[in-house]
Write a structure and sequence with these properties.
It comes from Paenibacillus cineris. By secondary structure, the chain is an all-alpha fold. The protein has five helices and no strands. Helices cover 93% and strands 0% of the residues.
Length: 101
Amino acid sequence: MVAASLIAKRAGGAVGGIFAAFPAVFLAALLTMRFDYGSRELVAHSIDLSQGALIGMAINVACAAAAGYLCTSKGWKKGLTLSVGGWLLVSFTISYVLFSL
């Protein structure tokens, strides 16, 4: 959270907000995995989680950009609906592609 605050101070709240939720969610997932896996399995699953987190973060950045644009051009209700709908569509599509391989 300190890093997100420093990023927000330097680059602004919009950029800092992108990084604000990521550490808490990612660390909580890592800590939860520790209860389910031993040391060797934990490393392999942590790598998988990290790769998924990078993809998820990219999708979240795109959704935030879409929400910013769509809310100003179409109004906040329609903008949020379209951006969250796009986020769901992209997320499910990428999940389907990754898990069907």
